[in-house]
Amino acid sequence: MTLTEDFHVHLYGVLSSEDIWTLGRDRYKNYADRLSWYEQEFEKATKKKISARLYWDDPNGLELLKSHYEMSSPGDFSIFQAKFNLLIALFPLVPSDCTVLRYVAQKDQRAGLTFAEYRTPFPRDLNFETIKSFCQCADDLNQEFSGAFTLRLAFSLARDPLLGLPQWEVLKKGISGFEKMVSGIDFCGSEIDAPPQLSKPLIELIKKERPSLAILMHVGEQYSHLSQDSALRLIYDAARLNCDRLGHATALGTPPQSQEGQEPVAVRTAHLKWLINEAPSLKDLGYVVHVNDIKKELTSLASQPPEKLIKVSLEFETLRPAITAYLKKQGSLLETCPTSNSLIGQISSLNELPFTYFSDHHLDFIVGRDDPGIFNITLEHELNIVKKITSIETLQTIAVNANRLSERYSRS
Questions:
Q1: Would you tell me which of 37, 55, 67, 81 could form a disulfide with 61, CB atoms 3.0–4.6 Å apart?
Q2: Cβ(344)–Cβ(72) under 8 Å?
């Protein structure tokens, strides 16, 4: 079985080291200030001082670029973001510049893909004219491909509605007349201090004003800042917001290394209050909430500083089945990216990658590349990982799910 449709891939993340070197040599001098920002952020995350201009000025620049950009060993999200920042610095969205979109789409088409939904960043200074010209580029490319390859855009908005709502107003104006080119709205980036419920007002507004747009939520991918029980809660909350697809959900699929977790008092308090509020629903899903015990714990936490880190006993093995049952009930479609999950999630065992649990418990999911340039992988590589430990029936379901999405967005 082959897979030719990708519904979880970030546009700029498709660029390989060689692509960046080729496209960047004629533009890097024009973005010295932006590259300086990239260098500073890279040093913060890695403790390494670098000079981006050497990627092009030094005879061994390409190898240096590879060593900074590609991610081949486990590291947390801050390491990944430090690498991705090179793309942000070097390729800002500007009106009538279709360079990256054209380059990436042609690259994917040559690689044998037939459909790609590109997650597209939304800088704070982006205006509707730039969005409109970008959508026009997408439309032109689709006409050039004449059905051999189809692309759609999913713009990534800020999780915080104070930023996301103004972005939506600009985006709504920019995509007017190009609704077919935009398949969804993506919520990605850091999950720290950005639970799904924070985006609820924006999601509700988008669903009201543009009901055809899919809501895509990265959730349960980064949870080193909280316990895995709390990460399960966030996955549940994202599903309750009727998000069309949940990205990664690593916390659901990968068991914790210990029966004890750690998180700030404020996060623990939020989790305990959630358990009380959702007690009836969770009971229906097979998880019994011991309200009196929780109230006692809340009382003991009330006098502690919100930011204080505390250890908590995990109930992961009893809570996870309930969250799984809820996702099935909602018909949630999960997006799994094996290499990304392995490296950013720092998961060493193939059997502990989240798709294994999804497959074993008959959750619907699709396979994506995430950022294939950074991870130096292909869609075939990702599918081959899944093939190693899943059934033929699961592989067929993955193909059906992807085909169903491509048919939906090709028609819309």
A1: 55
A2: no
Q: Six-digit token pair at 358?
A: 């999804």
Q: Enter the tokens of residue 167.
A: 């972005």
Distance CA 230, CA 212 (A): 31
DSSP-assigned letters across all residues of 161-209: HHHHHHHHHHHHHHTTT-GGGEEEEEE-S--TT--GGGGHHHHHHHHHH
Q: How far apart are CA 389 and CA 297, in angstroms?
A: 41
Largest separation between any pair of C-alpha atoms in the chain: 68
pLDDT tens series, the chain, 412 aa: 789 999 999 999 999 999 999 999 999 999 999 999 999 999 999 999 999 999 999 999 999 999 999 999 999 999 999 999 999 999 998 888 899 999 999 999 999 999 999 999 888 778 899 999 999 999 999 999 999 999 999 999 999 999 999 999 999 999 999 999 999 999 998 888 889 999 999 999 999 999 999 999 999 998 988 999 999 999 999 999 999 999 999 999 999 988 999 999 999 999 999 999 999 999 999 999 999 999 999 999 999 999 999 999 999 999 999 999 999 999 999 999 999 999 999 998 999 999 999 999 999 999 999 999 999 999 999 999 999 989 999 999 999 999 999 999 887 5
Half-sphere exposure of 340 (CA within 13 A, CB side): 29
For 220, residues 6+ apart whose C-beta sits below 8 A from its C-beta are: 231, 232, 234, 235, 246, 248, 249, 250, 251, 252
Q: Nearest Cα to 351, choosing from 308, 389, 384?
A: 389
Sign of the Cα pseudo-torsion (403, 404, 405, 410, in order): positive
Question: What is the pTM assigned to this prediction?
Answer: 0.95
Q: Find where tokens 């404020």 sit.
A: 266
The partner residues of 246 in beta bridges, in order of sequence, read 217, 334
Find the helix or strand (DSSP H, E) in which 157 lies. strand 150-157
Q: Measured on CA atoms in the order 201, 222, 315, 353, is the torsion positive or negative?
A: positive
The structure tokens 């010295």 sit at 32
Euclidean distance between CA atoms 235 and 219, whole angstroms: 6
